[in-house]
Amino acid sequence: MKRRVISFLLVLAMALTFAGCGASEKKSDAKDRSKKVAAKDRDDDGDDRGDDDGKGDDDGKGGGSGQDQKPGFHSLGLSEKYLVGFEYSTNDIYEVDPYVTVKYRKDGKVEMVDRVAVGKGGGARVREFDLTDEAYEALEQAIDLYKLYTLDPEEMDPDEVMDGGYSHIYMYGENDQVVYAAGGFCPQNKTFRNMYSALYDALPQELLDAYEELKIHQEFSRKCLYGGYGVFLNEETDWNLVRDYGVIVVDAQFLSEEDIKKLREQGNEFILSYINVGSLEEFRPYYEEFADLALGEYEHWEDEQWVDAGNEKWQAFILETLAPELLAKGIDGFFVDNCDVYYQFPTDEILQGLADMMSGLVATGKQVIINGGDVFLDAYTEKLGEWYDVVTGINQEMVFTWMDYDNNMVRARIMNCDEMEYYKAYIEKYAAMGADVFLLEYSDNAGIVERVEKYCREKRFVYYISDSLELDG
């Protein structure tokens, strides 16, 4: 009996010991994972200071051993292009608040690398901004790469208590990739904090403005997905019924600033306006002014003709007159129609004209959703630039349906037919790169509605199904 008791006590004691060790390890794991060991490597002669990239005056003590050992500072081979970089965010817990990488260059420019907007399949979007000479000189004086490499950023300062999350300053190697990340979780070292603050202080206003636009776009994407989408382009629409949408499309040319304000008060968070860059409609007040630019009849639409999008007069009207007039009414972006003029007239002049107009709309900082436009967008990305230069998202009509003009009715497409597969491939390709995707279908058929809903749920696309081609709600 005594042996059993003693054995039980021994097992219990061992269990408690292991449990205690586990708890102790868990308690220290978070700090151990983030801590950057500050090994102060020097050359054998102790004189490893004072080159162009490091101004430090460390005492030359050797560092640790094994996996904690870092290469000597001069063996790093630092980038000739980049000074330092860091992850920037406004850290506002009440808003969509993406992180971007900010990289300061030695030529006095700064890059903002945005992976959020471009998506997993599309790499990264890099935008560059100029620093003033004063800002760059102040930054250069504040950043000491040698000290940054050799300090212990988690060394506690007894007279200063910091709070927050992970903070790192990146150093870049000869291949312009990160060679060392100084920092960690709530780093307390004053030298590190001063350098980190200098990175924020040097940010140019143009970059901060671009970041705010990115935040708005991320909020737009979220509202699209969770707030609902509606397209209302008929003057007979009962606007009192258009309420609580995340995103709506209207024809703001025929609405007033007060109308837009009322729609917003009715809970519609983002309001886009229809704008036609590729055709002329006879009911538009500017039709007569540009009728001489008509290229030919728009099949099945008697009051509409394709327009010469390569004409500079037309481009100037879109960017300098029409778009500003719509923006002045308080809209949040553009729903751009008839870039398909390039499909009808595939000339270099039309392609460039559309590119200039679309990039001009994107430059306003607002949302730019292209309706269709597959041939144009593919040609642009093949010949001229990146998709995000000219759009922020794509709306595709009739993926699951088609218009039977002979019988004046909408019909369901045969599942997985060539046309359906083509449109799916188009929108899925750009969705993988980060574009917002919308589907617009016309049907009151329960089977078609179910197909659209299922597809969009699987792909996380946004859709609106109208029971009328008139889009009157």
Descriptive notes:
The chain is α/β, with parallel strands linked by helices. Helix content is 36%, strand content 21%. The strands form 5 sheets. The protein has an 8-stranded parallel β-sheet. A 4-stranded antiparallel β-sheet has the order 1-2-3-4, covered by helices on one side. Helix 2 runs antiparallel to helix 4 and helix 8 runs parallel beside helix 10. The radius of gyration is 30 Å and the shape is elongated. 33% of the residues are buried. The N terminus is likely disordered.
- CATH H-tier superfamily of the largest domain: Aldolase class I
Hey, roughly how much beta strand do the residues contain?
Answer: 15-25%
Strand order of the largest sheet: 7-8-9-13-14-15-18-19
Structural category is alpha/beta
- Count of beta strands: 19
N-to-C span: 85 Å
CATH topology of the largest domain: TIM Barrel
| Count of discrete structural domains | 2
